[in-house]
Amino acid sequence: MLSALGPASGYSLSKRFDATLGHVWNAKHSQIYPELKRLQAEGLIEVTDEGARGSKSYTITHTGRATVSHWVIDTEPAPVRRNEAALRAFLIPLVSQDDARAVLQREADFSTQRIQELEALRSTAEHAPGHFGALALELGIRQMHTIRDWAQWAIEQLDQDTNAQAAHRSHSPQH
Amino acid sequence: MLSALGPASGYSLSKRFDATLGHVWNAKHSQIYPELKRLQAEGLIEVTDEGARGSKSYTITHTGRATVSHWVIDTEPAPVRRNEAALRAFLIPLVSQDDARAVLQREADFSTQRIQELEALRSTAEHAPGHFGALALELGIRQMHTIRDWAQWAIEQLDQDTNAQAAHRSHSPQH
DNA sequence: CTAAACATGTAAACGGTTACATGATTCG
DNA sequence: CGAATCATGTAACCGTTTACATGTTTAG
Prior knowledge:
The structure is a homodimer.
Chain A: H1 2-5, H2 10-21, H3 29-41, E1 45-50, E2 56-60, H4 62-74, H5 84-91, H6 97-122, H7 134-171
Helix pairs in contact in A: 2-3, 6-7
Chain A binds a DNA duplex through helix 2 and helix 3.
């Protein structure tokens, strides 16, 4: 984050996480402060200013920037292995048809809400095309659309299964 | 998993994670064995059979099944807070245009490969419509499509930006 | 004056991964 | 007979969250 958005104190990094990066990667202040010390000890960042109320401004070093670039370029994509929405989907057959519909509808509603929040962000200056976060924000929005569409599709599937079974019963009522 | 796919030993659960649920939620045997003991102590599962080589077959109890259903129905969706693809996207402006293109292309290629793997799964009996895993698999496939499409869109964006800047330079060459 | 915001830290606990460790059975 | 597979466990470590803890400055 220091490499992308410039120098900051632990406190303002924490605010940046809440505002900008939170939907992509998050960190609490209790993780940030020790991490800043560790990065400083490794020479990847340095204290460049000390302001009011004991605040310290950290700036990324040349080595630090190189390390981040290297990570971006050389890290190979890995499949996500913690997908809570999909886990619930996996277990859906355990619950009643009505409960299943409700669960999926809640997922769809939640996504709709997130889409609105993220699209509001998109019109801010920091997320203009070419800026840090613009690509990530676009991906976030698309992923929310995907979950919403999937949930609506899944509800239709449930209903079709029900109708198909009902139709089958009415055609062969004795079996 | 015991509630969805029936009784299993720690070893076979580990195999099931590798085969079926891995792309959604994963667990290693070192996590599974202690967890089975914990769930047993809480009365959510029980040992129903002891086979060869000291293998123990665990079955979900009535309470266990109720607990899982309750979790599925009552857990509200939470925004994902660890999205490595999006994090890389966020940091893309740090690297050169060529490197950026390569990173995005790798992401697209990786997704294409995953799509093929997951679609191969879809034609298996366990993933037929209405079965455990069918909805989750569909979501997984759609999410991979989303990343692939997004990466391709992002590459186009990069190229358009370059062209626009080149055009701008050629129209006002002195500035 | 006091509540909110600014600002920084530490400790305990938890979930998960990696590595260590052991032994039984089957297949070639 | 030896390698692969079946089968179960523990220990150390790491990243993260929750809770604890403290002090300063600003705005109403």
